[in-house]
Fold:
Amino acid sequence: MHRLTRDEARRIAVRAQLLDADRPGDIVEVAEQLGAIKIDPTATIAPAEQTIPWSRIGWAYEPGQLTKAVETDRLLFEHQGQFRPTSLLPMMAARMRGRTLPAATREYLDANAPFRRDVLRRLREEGPLLASDIPDTSIVQGKREGGWYGANEVPRMLELLEATGEVAIVGREGRMRRWDVTERAWPTGMPVHDYDEAERMLEMRRLQALGIARRKTSWSGVGDAGEPAEVEGSEWKWRVDPEALAALDDDPGGRVAILNPYDRMLFDRPRLIELFEFEFVLEQFKPKAQRRFGYFAHPILIGDRFVGQLDAELDKKKENLVVTAVHETLPLEPEEREMVDGEIRDLAEWLGVPVVFGAGGR
Structure:
């Protein structure tokens, strides 16, 4: 049983997420360590798939690197709303093909068996294709909680076939996905794993991405990977990555990081509170009158402390980054505030626009 202070646990978590002073070199390195980069169209500043790598790499990152890594080099792939490293594909493929589908999904696929065959045939013969290139020959429509999935069943069928490992996303035209069959989209000669073996391997990769996580929780999915640990002042059962633990003494120090609200570092809200004493609530879906920090506020990390949230928006018409407020959740020393302002200016320069600080931004 490893016994850690809260400072040590936080440093492990920060370093595992590549948010310390030792910046990674490229987008592939980021994806390999994080395991997944969220795709989301909300772009008050920039989309999640762009700001997540920028917050790690900094100036050396250019948005075109992501497209090249996915569509040309095939070192990353898109799956269910995230970009992932291709090194994970053998394990994920085993789980896709071995998963048990819910009864309603099986009924939908059985009822639409001719439609399923039509989609696969067209992709094999004509792919890669956009969903709009494929006719809807569905027999029955599927339902989702809260209403109909949509008038066109092709996107639904493609997403189900993606979940079972029959089709894959191979690129995009704007926000539209291009699809192909996996026998052509996936690399040949991939290692073959059984379902349970693949899950154990994925649990270890998840723990490596987090550094330290609670055991047996849906927030992290690390299971029994790594080694058991106790954290000072916490009654939770933790698992820690032994390599991250061994590197604790090799500490490069901290820095300022501005995180997209969909950043993996923020996903496990209970862990944020337990280790960092930071309660983060995404206010995107709250009525305006109930928002404290802003529609899409970006948390600010200094070293291993969350010190505030940035409420800012890219004004595309005026071509500047408007900082409405920097909400301090911990009091900042003058030099810390200067560091935060410097990171905001770097963000604006990366976007190619000047920064404009509003009355609450300073």
About this structure: The two ends are 46 Å apart (CA to CA). The longest helix spans residues 334-351.
